[in-house]
Amino acid sequence: MHAMDHRHNSQRRRFLQLAGMGLIASSGIPGLARAMTGPALSRATPGFRPDVEIEMVSRDVMFPILPGTRTRLQKYFATVLKGPANCIADIPGSYLGPVLRLHKGQKVRIHYRNEMKDPSIVHWHGLHVPALADGHPMYAVKQGETYVYEFEVMNRAGTCIYHSHAHEQTAEQVYQGLASGIIVTDEEEQKLGLPGGEFDLPVVIQDRAFDASNQLVYVSMPMERMTGFHGDRILINGAVHSHFEVASRAYRLRLVNGSNARIYKLGWDDGTPITVIGNDGGLLEKPETRPYVMLAPGERLDLWADFSGRAVGSELVMRSKPFHGVLPAMAERMLSGHKGENAGGEKGHGMMGGMGMMGGMGHGGSKGMMGGGGMGGMMNMPHMNLPVGSDYPVFKIRVTRQVSDSPKLPTQLSTIRHYQLGDVANPNKPVPLAIAEGHMSMTLNGRPYKMGEVQDFEKIKLNTFQLMEIFHAHGSEGGHGSNGSGQKQEHGGGGMGGMNHGSGQQGGGMGMMGMMGGMQHGGDNQGGGGTEHGSGGQGGGMGGMGGMGSMMSMAHPIHLHGQQFQILKRHTEGVDAEAYATVREGFVDSGLKDTVLVMPGEKVTLIKPFQDYTGLFMYHCHNLEHEDMGMMSEFQVVE
């Protein structure tokens, strides 16, 4: 039997076994699990013989991050039941879960037990696994329950991550600590002699905010959900004021953006070029150099960092350098103009300057747009102390010992198959992924996420390659979006006419710059300001307001579950050229990807394979607040 057929049939047997035990409820989606209760996957499959077996637990903990009082967090713990002892490795002094170390071809079983009060599930971000093992939010387990994952490691060598994927709670649970890294190795990589052991460093970059009692501060205002939450302290591997003590030789730095929403533009403070050897999907074919690299939430980059020739006592700082254009213009003016102390104790300087458009907005009453506590409350948002796109230190390298030997950078790292248009099943009809933003709503393909609702174009035939386009749907016609070059799309749609939040009624849309006219929030009807309305309902679009959508547009890191894809092209005809120039040299789009940052006005064309496994596979914005707000959907892979 062909290996691919064996994997597919193995998944089918596991599904049928569970169904036979009465553990999977039926659904309107033929052949797929739609509702699962409690301990549905609490049993291992008898015929699956793992090489690695791990028990993983998530718990509420108190953990020391800052001096003094411990911080209330959520944390993963793991124990090896079978396999190499080094397949899990704790990060010393970190609230992050242990790093998993796996090898291509290994069969893995993980018993995940939730000991927290809220439901949760684990997603293995970047791994190509069966749908039942992908961490779909419909499989979330309650306190005291267990979910059993079984899969074969099919990925190339590279850096992946794992994190909570609980429905509408992903952002907060990840912020509370439920995340860590996965390192996959294979024979191709092992032949290269890349830095290993103590010279192979995970670097998980996160931002957090703390109150005076050392407790985490999370979303307190609607604006923080719309932009995604940004803290005012940078943590590396769970530690503040982080630095690495190194020898004068080459290292491999595995950069992971573990922030909820913050985008980084990373570069060495002395102007040394960045050498990239890998991204989301593992090693590149050849090393690439950049003056800086962009790293969005969910993305990974492996760097070759050679400190040979640097004197003992010398230091090198990785900074996030100035850029702009990733937030709506209104938000950038509001959130990037304040000067405050950043993670390194330096002053952060925003790109836009001034409070601009938001002066005089009220935030206390039921009619207030922000629902907070006046502009004074806005000034206390963590954004303001570490502005998005400002210049600040991320981590420091300190050379503490001299050595004479160091590995050499290989000129050839790996071999990658390059997907071609001739490989795809839909060369003339790309699958659309239409991004749309509105007041307190984020959507993909014209509607917020509703579990199990799959549109026709999201049904994908197994073992096909699909041409896809990700674009911002901000057309002037209600219910339709633009793909960045003016072409109307058949699917997707813009967005916000008649959205309602927290009530059973529908608003009347957003017409002619009447910005929030007819919106419904918690049953409090906030009247109309518009004179021209969308058609009502969630697909009604923005009526005659073409410019409003683009004004609200922002960058989105779009993550596709399942097999990793290849980027064919970034179409930049619709971008703000001046803003785009501050980021364009930092994209590492070669190789394989599972997350791509799509700038405002940009369209990204890619090819994604759907091999080996049927079932539901998510795609969503990896700005985690946006994901929880509904910027998520799913593909149904069918035979």
UniProtKB/TrEMBL annotation:
<keyword id="KW-0479">Metal-binding</keyword>
<comment type="subunit">
    <text>Monomer.</text>
</comment>
<dbReference type="Pfam" id="PF07732">
    <property type="entry name" value="Cu-oxidase_3"/>
</dbReference>
<protein>
    <recommendedName>
        <fullName>Multicopper oxidase CueO</fullName>
        <ecNumber>1.16.3.4</ecNumber>
    </recommendedName>
</protein>
<dbReference type="GO" id="GO:0016491">
    <property type="term" value="F:oxidoreductase activity"/>
</dbReference>
<dbReference type="InterPro" id="IPR002355">
    <property type="entry name" value="Cu_oxidase_Cu_BS"/>
</dbReference>
<dbReference type="InterPro" id="IPR045087">
    <property type="entry name" value="Cu-oxidase_fam"/>
</dbReference>
<feature type="domain" description="Plastocyanin-like">
    <location>
        <begin position="552"/>
        <end position="637"/>
    </location>
</feature>
<dbReference type="InterPro" id="IPR011706">
    <property type="entry name" value="Cu-oxidase_C"/>
</dbReference>
<feature type="compositionally biased region" description="Gly residues">
    <location>
        <begin position="492"/>
        <end position="544"/>
    </location>
</feature>
<feature type="domain" description="Plastocyanin-like">
    <location>
        <begin position="80"/>
        <end position="188"/>
    </location>
</feature>
<keyword id="KW-0560">Oxidoreductase</keyword>
<dbReference type="GO" id="GO:0005507">
    <property type="term" value="F:copper ion binding"/>
</dbReference>
<dbReference type="InterPro" id="IPR033138">
    <property type="entry name" value="Cu_oxidase_CS"/>
</dbReference>
<feature type="region of interest" description="Disordered">
    <location>
        <begin position="474"/>
        <end position="544"/>
    </location>
</feature>
<dbReference type="InterPro" id="IPR006311">
    <property type="entry name" value="TAT_signal"/>
</dbReference>
<dbReference type="Pfam" id="PF07731">
    <property type="entry name" value="Cu-oxidase_2"/>
</dbReference>
<dbReference type="InterPro" id="IPR011707">
    <property type="entry name" value="Cu-oxidase-like_N"/>
</dbReference>
